[in-house]
Amino acid sequence: MSDGPTYGFDTLQIHAGARPDPATGARQTPIYQTTAYVFRDADHAAALFNLQEVGYIYSRLTNPTVAVLQERIATLEGGVGAVCCSSGHAAQIMALFPLMGPGRNVVASTRLYGGTVTQFSQSIKRFGWSAKFVDTDDLEAVKAAIDDDTRAIFCESIANPGGYVTDIRALADLADAAGIPLIVDNTSATPYLCRPIEQGATLVVHSTTKYLTGNGTVTGGAIVDSGRFDWSANDKFPSLSEAEPAYHGLKFHETFGPLAFTFHGIAVGLRDLGMTMNPQGAHYTLMGIETLSLRMQRHVENAEKIAAWLEKDDRVDYVTYAGLPSSPYHDRVKAQYPKGAGALFTFAVKGGYDACVKLVNALEIFSHVANLGDTRSLIIHSASTTHRQLTPEQQQAAGAGPNVVRVSIGIEDADDLIADLDQALAKASA
Ligand SMILES: *Cc1c(COP(=O)(O)O)cnc(C)c1O
C-alpha cells in the first residue's frame, strides 16, 4: 500500500512498509532468511557498492524483512527513514556514531534507563566521547551544560524509572539554538503515546525489545530520522557534511539530502559496526507492532487504575505515575501526551528495603525481571538489583531508593493485578 498521510495510526501499524510479496503474493511479510542477494550483472553490483543504486547486497547492511520494519517504524514516528539494529543500546551507539568524535560530548538527562546511564557514563569513554548529565526539567542547567564540543542532547520521552514525562519541545528549542540535534529515546512512550519529531526532535531511538515487539521475545533497536536537520549548517558534523573517503569522497548530506543520516547509518554504521537486526527478530517485532495501539490503550488504562489504587493505600508512601491528577507533571501530560502517560512508574513502600523485598517475593502475577514493556506485568526492586552498586545517595537521586519498586503494568485484568498487589502488600507489611 502507498503510505498516504491520510491513513490513521491503526491502519499504518498494520500496513506501512508492507506489500504482498512480489514473488509469491504472500500477504504476510516473509522472513527473508538470506545473507546475500544475487546481482543482476557486474554493472548492477558496482552501482550498489557505489551507493548509486539502492538495493540489497548483504544482510549486515539491508534485508527485505528488516526493511519493512524500518519503513513501518519511520512512518509511525513521522520520520523520513529508520535504521534497525540489534538492540536498544546498539541504536544509541548508532545514533551517536555519526555525530560524535574524540573529545565530543552529549548532554544527557539524569532520568534514563539504568543501562543507558552505564553506557553513557562508562563505556562511551573508550571512544573518547563523554556525557554530561543534567536534570532536563532545569532548562537553564541544560543550556549551561552545552559547550562547543557538545554534539547532541539526549533524553527519554517517558523516562525511567519513575515514568516522568519530558518537555520535548523545550529541549528541542535549546538544541536548535545551539545547532545540535535532540535525540529522544521513545521506548517507554512508543509513537502511539508520543511522537517526538512533531515536538521538534531530530532523531528518535527505540529499544524495540519493549512495547513495539510487546511480548518479551526478541531484542532490537531502531533509529528514526526526522530528515529536518541541516547537517551542513556548521562544521560540527563532518561525517555527514564532508567527503567520505570510503565512498570515493561522497558527501552524505549533499548526495542524500534529508535521508543523509539514514543512508550513513546503513552504509557506514551497519557496515562497520555490524550491530545488525536479524530477519527473524524483525518478524517478531512486525507481529507486535500490528497491535501496538490496542496494547498501549490497555497498558495506560490499567496503569491509571492501579496507580490510583496504590496512591490511596495506607501501606504505600507515594506513587510517581505522571498520569495521576496529583502528579506535578499532570499539565504536561495533558499537553504533550494526551493519550496517556504510559505504564511505567515507581511506588514507595512503607517499611523500606525489607518490605520491598517481601513484596517482590510475594507477588504471583507480577514477574520479578529486569525488563519493561511486556504484555505481562513486571516489577523490580532497583536497590537490591539494577542499582545495587550505587550508594544510598546515588540511589535516591536516580529515583531508585531502597523503599522504591518499579512496575511495568501489563495488559492482564486490572482487578487481578490489584488483588495480587493487595495480597503481596499485606505480606510485606505484616
Ligand atoms: C531497554 C531499554 C533500552 C536498552 O534497550 P535494549 O534493547 O535492552 O538494548 C534503552 N532505553 C530504554 C528506555 C529501555 O527501556
Automatic annotation (TrEMBL):
SUPFAM superfamilies, sorted: PLP-dependent transferases (SSF53383)
Keywords recorded for this protein, A-Z: Pyridoxal phosphate, Transferase
Gene3D superfamilies reported in the protein's UniProt record: Aspartate Aminotransferase, domain 1, Type I PLP-dependent aspartate aminotransferase-like (Major domain)
Cofactor requirement: pyridoxal 5'-phosphate
Key word Signal present: no
Similarity comment: Belongs to the trans-sulfuration enzymes family.
Cross-referenced NCBIfam families: OAH_OAS_sulfhy
Protein name as catalogued: O-acetylhomoserine aminocarboxypropyltransferase/cysteine synthase
Lineage of the species this protein comes from: Bacteria, Pseudomonadati, Pseudomonadota, Alphaproteobacteria, Rhodobacterales
